[in-house]
Design brief:
CATH topology: Rossmann fold
Oligomer: single chain
Structural class: alpha/beta
Radius of gyration: 17 Å
Bound molecules: adenosine-5'-diphosphate, adenosine monophosphate
Strand order of the largest sheet: 2-3-1-4-7
CATH superfamily: P-loop containing nucleotide triphosphate hydrolases
CATH class: Alpha Beta
Length: 224
């Protein structure tokens, strides 16, 4: 199964994708995480992306499409995928569909996390991440066991530089101008499930799992 999660920055895509990946045994591919890894490794790609990411803009389509095509190609044909943060423009969505179709594959389900602006702003400014393992916490909503330390490896949690208020504004602008049209693109081509992402993490997961469980059941009934 190939799933795309859409939603504003801070809507909870990464948090839900991690849970989906564990429950259904799917590979979680986050374009933002891959870019951050490229930057940390000091690669050419990371250097190209740096300025766009730091200012809250989108990295150019050609860079992202190639990077994600490579990541998807590396994944085993048998492993399903859950895509997080990609596609983020209609052009990226078209290119993704073209490359999947070329391999006889498609996006099976699109989950759109809907969230109010005030809720999402508070989620972004309160987000803290582990620089070592990538685990994500929130200073109020999803606290680590020991304040400021990662539950998995004890590393000091950090605030992403692009979660600062001035950059967040630009990220929302990019979302409204360039990413929102992706929802309509998928509404015209696939089934899109709208999820109320204002709720607490477990409630959002319950909504998501109910949809995915039903789809998986229908697919297995069809096969029988
Ligand atoms: P995205 O991947 O969409 O940018 P994240 O999954 O990183 O968003 O979540 C943004 C912040 O909000 C994180 O600090 C996360 O712990 C927190 N968070 C995620 N989902 C919820 C939720 N349903 N309720 C409250 N806080 C949440
Ligand atoms: P994220 O971790 O998804 O919030 O992404 C962090 C930053 O990486 C974004 O603000 C963009 O600058 C860049 N980025 C991530 N995914 C994409 C994408 N699909 N297209 C363009 N830029 C991206």
């Amino acid at each position: 199964m190939r799933i795309v999660l859409l939603g504003a920055p801070g809507a909870g895509k990464g948090t839900q994708c991690k849970r989906i990946s564990v429950r259904y045994g799917l590979l979680h591919l986050s374009s933002g995480d891959i870019l951050r890894q490229e930057r940390a490794a000091g690669t050419e790609l990371g250097k190209k992306a740096r300025g766009y990411m730091d200012s809250g803009g989108l990295v150019p389509d050609e860079v992202i499409v190639e990077m994600m095509a490579e990541a998807i190609k590396k994944a085993s044909q048998k492993t399903g995928l859950v895509l997080d943060g990609f596609p983020r423009t209609v052009n990226q969505a078209v290119k993704l569909d073209e490359s999947l179709t070329g391999n006889g594959q498609r996006i099976d389900v699109v989950l759109n996390l809907n969230i109010e602006q005030e809720v999402v702003s508070e989620r972004m400014t309160g987000r803290r991440s582990c620089p070592k393992c990538g685990a994500v916490y929130h200073i109020k909503n999803l606290k680590p066991k020991v304040e400021g330390k990662c539950d998995n490896d004890g590393a000091e949690l950090v605030q992403r530089p692009d979660d600062s208020l001035d950059v967040v504004k630009n990220r929302f602008r990019a979302y409204h101008e360039q990413t929102k049209p992706v929802v309509d693109y998928y509404k015209n081509n696939n089934t899109v499930y709208d999820i109320d992402a204002n709720r607490v993490v477990d409630e959002v997961s319950t909504l998501v799992f109910a949809i995915l469980d039903t789809l998986i059941e229908v697919r297995s009934d069809r096969r029988q």
